[in-house]
Write a structure and sequence with these properties.
By secondary structure, the protein is mainly β. The protein has 3 helices and 12 strands; from the N terminus they run E-E-E-E-E-E-E-E-E-E-E-H-E-H-H. It folds into 2 domains: 14-189, Distorted Sandwich (Glucose Permease (Domain IIA)), CATH 2.70.70.10; 224-255, no CATH class.
């Protein structure tokens, strides 16, 4: 077994689940019957696909959303902002060369989430319903992403926005529609990305650093190379007697120069 190179070196926790025997569309499975791709994937732009029912408008709101393949839920939360309810499922599958690889499938803007983090999902299992995003900010649709980098999670801005990180969902599904059934469980890495939601406020207590008995902080131990660099800097000549010392003079004073 070969682990995907996109798994961070610190990710050692795993669980086991069935290796995928193929992938289906997340709406109207297995072939997406009754739905169409309203917006496609393109690098450095739209990083997934938007799927709609053929009835138009919000007639597809509440329609069932299904897992594209066997996998483990690694994220299920209301991310708020422009996302709303999101589910991410991690899948193990066998490449054409025989190696085991991994992807994450993301299902965004859900009205209802029906799975929890840690749940083990089978191909075609319902995981939620189609929604309109937070506060009904969109027409109902499913936003589907498939990532080859398992570190992304909900921190997309920290990663490249191209094929080095993402698959075109339709291309991937079509390429791996039918895989040889193996009926065996394989290790699947988990906890590979930060699960905290930056859109939620916390009220945790924090401790202020001690400043010592005298109420003043000790001067920092600055490397000599930094001191030398500071000493080479000069401030602009004051234009009046009321001018305050420049930034470099103040830094030298702080360092006791």
């Amino acid at each position: 077994m070969v682990l995907c190179s996109a798994i961070p070196a610190w990710a050692v926790k795993t669980t086991t689940h069935y290796i995928a025997d193929g992938f289906d569309y997340p709406v109207g499975p297995p072939n997406g019957d009754g739905y169409y791709k309203a917006r496609g994937y393109y690098p450095n732009g739209h990083l997934g696909e938007d799927w709609n029912g053929r009835g138009g408008g919000n007639t597809d709101e509440g329609d069932p959303i299904y897992a594209i393949g066997h996998g483990v839920v690694v994220y299920s939360d209301d991310f708020k902002m422009g996302w709303g309810n999101v589910v991410i499922i991690r899948h193990a599958y066998r490449e054409k060369n025989g190696q085991i690889a991994y992807i994450d499938s993301l299902y965004g803007h859900l009205k209802v989430r029906m799975v929890r983090e840690g749940d083990k999902i089978t191909r075609g299992q319902q995981i939620g319903t189609m929604g309109r995003g937070p506060h009904n900010m969109y027409y109902a649709h499913l936003h589907l992403e498939i990532r080859k980098n398992l570190a992304v999670g909900m921190n997309r801005s920290d990663f490249k926005r191209d094929y080095s990180v993402y698959h075109s969902p339709t291309n991937f599904i079509e390429k791996y529609r039918r895989l040889r059934p193996e009926y065996r469980r394989v290790p699947i890495p988990i906890d590979t990305f930060k699960q905290s939601n930056p859109n939620l406020f916390t009220m945790d207590k924090v401790s202020a650093p001690s400043t010592g008995r005298g109420g003043s902080m000790a001067r920092p131990n600055v490397p000599n190379v930094v001191r030398e660099a500071i000493d080479t800097q000069t401030d602009a000549k004051p234009t009046s007697k009321d001018d305050k010392p420049g930034i470099w003079s103040r830094i030298r004073g702080f360092l006791g120069r």
